[in-house]
Amino acid sequence: MSCRRTKPSRFAAGFTLLELLLALAIFSLVSAMAYGGLKAVLDAAEVTNRQAGRLDELQRAFLRLETDLEQAAPRPIRDAYGDRQPAMRYEAGLSGTLEFTRGGRPNPAGFARSDLERIAYRVKDKTLYRYSWLSLDRGDDTPPLELDLVSGVETLQVRFLGPSGEWDEDWPPRTDETDPRTLPKALGITLQVEGFGEVYRVFRIAG
Fold first, then answer.
1. What is the domain extent for residue 142?
2. FRET partner for 169 with CA separation of 20 to 30 A, picked from 30, 139, 187, 190?
């Protein structure tokens, strides 16, 4: 009895080297495209999270400003040189420092002390800082408490709504002899912030 040899099927022969190389090339191309898309999504998410963090930082700074300004008090002070300073002051084009007296200083222990403190806002090294002095009439050895609020701030500009209903870039106004206890009706504050441009807010002064 003779055995007849059968011809192997071409499907049982496996892949050729060319087919393997072609499959690897296609797989590499698809992987590179998928990685590129994933990286783009991750980069976009990182940028979004970073911007969201800076926006939250900016909103908290404005909330701090609002809280301080709502409790602005008509109390002039004497500075480290003994010179009398108004309850609120700001000179456009100089240091760009907004300084004023505020009330409502917490006193949970009930100590016999004033609830007033001196507050200042100033941009230094592209960062908006808040300064506070616990002693109103201070000497040379009275350093302020410093708190950084927002980074990437180019400038701080302030304008003031006076009792006459007109806006002024300085306070007290230079045009008249304003009582040093006088406060504006409102403040318009503009921050030039990297990534956001000009951010403008108006704050009401209580009373």
1. 66-151
2. 139
Respond yes or no on whether the N-terminal peptide bond of residue 172 is cis (omega within 30° of 0): yes
CATH code for the domain of 71 = 3.10.610.10
Structure tokens that stand for 150 in this block: 């927002």
Tens digit of each residue's pLDDT (9 = 90 or more) over 57-79: 899 999 999 999 999 999 999 88
Domain assignment present for residue 120? The answer is yes
When divided into structural domains, the chain yields a total of 1
In a domain, 164, yes or no: no
In a domain, 79, yes or no: yes
d(CA 13, CA 8) in angstroms, rounded, equals: 8
Contacts of 127 (CB under 8 A, 6+ apart): 148, 149, 150, 151, 152, 153
Q: How many residues does the structure list for the chain?
A: 207
In a domain, 179, yes or no: no
Cα→Cα distances 113→108, 179, 191, Å: 12, 26, 35
What per-residue string of b and e applies to 40-73 under the rule 16 or more CB within 10 Å gives b?
A: eeeeeeeeeeeeeebeebbeebbebbeebbebbb
pTM of the model: 0.73
